[in-house]
Amino acid sequence: MAEQRMGFFTDTTVCIGCKACEVACKEWNDVPDDGFVFRATSYDNTGALGASTWRHVAFVEQDGRWLMMSDVCKHCTHAACLDVCPTGALFRTEFDTVVVQSDVCNGCGYCVPACPYGVIDRREDDGRAWKCTLCYDRLRGGMEPACAKACPTKSIQFGPLDELRERARDRVERLHAEGVTEARLYGEDPDNGVGGTGAFFLLLDEPETYGLPPDPVVTTRDLPAMWRWAGGAALALAAGVAVCFAGRKP
Amino acid sequence: MPRRRHEMVPDAEFRSYYGQPILKPPIWHEPHMPAYLYLGGMSGAASAMAAAARLAGHERLELAARTAAFAGGTVGAAFLVAELGRPMRFLNMMRVFKPTSPMSVGSWTLAAQGGLTSVAVGSAVTGVLPRVGDAATLASGLTGVAMATYTAVLLADTAVPAWHEALRELPFLFAGSALASAGAAVMLTTPRAQAGPARAAAVAGAVTEVVAGGLMERRLGLVGEPYRTGRAGRLMRASRALTLGGGLLATVAGRSRTLTALSGIAITAGALCTRFGVLEAGRASAKDPKYTVLPQRPPPPA
């Protein structure tokens, strides 16, 4: 079963905002309609990643340029959604991706506020949590994910993560040499707060401009400290109760 | 094509994607989630009181505490099941035990708490197997202190800034709130002459709740803002007033039934305001991207 770690490199410098990735994802994964809303914020009509939006194209109109970026689940090395899932519905696949088993999920909703990127969400009419599977079924069939397949400009590149990282570093070097000094990689660093993301990006502005957190940390990194503080409070509670009864005759 | 536009933006300026949230706010419903936080905490602290009452020989108080622990755990569990997107699959919580998931640890704790408090009450009411009932009461003292505090880890173990950053104080806030809640419930259901330890618990819990809440808001700084503003701010202020008032009344509540009732109701209302307020503050802090972005920014070069 030991496969290579697979992932996405999304190069936003060549994204043309066509939304073919959003459509391909919807079609292949049978993701339901999530409403037709004119948001009056540029050309974005899906708004954010969610239970029924697994690829989201962000549009940022700036003075003299137009940023476009196809966002997706980051498939973190240290995935908070997976850590906190109480049923084991979320699991790590042989491709090192993070997938929800919809036949197990009981819709507890814990993964939703645990994700530091705001990716996973619960579909309220269905009651379960949903997100990008990195087209687990296609990967098992030896195919690339639907979004990468449909991308007409190779903004979305799929492949073994170490190859993608190398390719991305070369791309940034070339852009810097061409004078695009604001080009930077986002998420690829294995030493970042989530241990590196399986889906990473080449951006032309600060992450928050695209709706991404600048430097997120997996919440479970602090879990041992949380249990220690809670243990202290539990002991204090026991001691407090004991004191309330001490010296009082029935 | 040299483009250095981003350098024209001052460093201190905070930017976002059309002001939209970066995080998904917690989707847990009202009143389910905060009601469970209250009931589970009350049940846990009541179990600890029942165990202490057993050891100290306070029989009448022990019966009231056993009953409160059972009622809180049972009704709380019903709220939790109703909260699920797929309530029929609630038993999937028992598929695995995952120490990395506070909800998994909590589900097993709640299951143990429910079982033990059912046995304890069943035995007390029917008079059947008194030794088993007593042993269950003592054991529920252990699950009880876990019940009263694990919910703090449940909330802190998320990306929600106002919860995660409060990981030190939340357990004490919740333990204090649970002790005050249980003290109030037991005080209300025990004859005054035998309710002394419950009144003491109500006072100690109320003081802890107010002090821990105050320390939390002060230490958090920017991320603590949601506890002070908007609906969450109103709830937290109401909680403080009710809890302090109820706690003060509890010191003299032994004198009359009216004082006992006023104190118990004020403390219960205060504890509920705390739980609703903490949920609301978490939502507010997840919805405003500034609480996500600013703490994550590297400090500006000196």
CATH fold description of the largest domain in chain A:
Alpha-Beta Plaits
CATH architecture of the largest domain in chain A: 2-Layer Sandwich
- Count of separate structural domains of chain B: 1
The succession of helices and strands of chain B, N to C, reads HHHHHHHHHH
User: Total domains of chain A, how many?
Assistant: 2
* Quaternary structure classification: heterodimer
How many strands appear in the DSSP assignment of chain B? 0
**What would you report as the Rg of chain B, rounded to the nearest angstrom?**
22 Å
- CATH class group of chain B: Mainly Alpha
Question: What does this protein structure show overall?
Answer:
The complex is a heterodimer of chains A (250) and B (302). Chain A is an alpha+beta fold and 250 residues long. Chain A folds into 2 domains: 6-217, 2-Layer Sandwich (Alpha-Beta Plaits), CATH 3.30.70; 220-250. Chain A is 28% helix and 18% strand. Chain A has 7 helices and 10 strands. The model of chain A has no long low-confidence stretch (mean pLDDT 96). Chain B contains 10 helices and no strands. Helix content of chain B is 70%, strand content 0%. By secondary structure, chain B is an all-alpha fold. The model of chain B is unreliable at 1-12 (pLDDT under 50). In chain B, helix 1 crosses helix 4, helix 1 packs across helix 9 and helix 4 (130-156) packs antiparallel against helix 6. Chain B has a single domain (24-296), classed as Formate dehydrogenase/DMSO reductase fold. Chain B is globular. At the A-B interface, strand 2, helix 2, helix 3, strand 6 and helix 7 of A face helix 1, helix 2, helix 3, helix 4 and helix 6 of B.
What's the short version?
Chain A has helices at 20-29, 80-84, 111-114, 136-140, 146-150, 161-177, 223-245; strands at residues 6-11, 55-62, 65-72, 90-92, 98-100, 121-122, 129-130, 156-160, 184-186, 199-203. With 250 residues, chain A is of the alpha+beta class. Chain A has a four-stranded mixed β-sheet. In chain A, strands 2-3 form a two-stranded antiparallel sheet. A two-stranded antiparallel ribbon of chain A has the order 4-5.
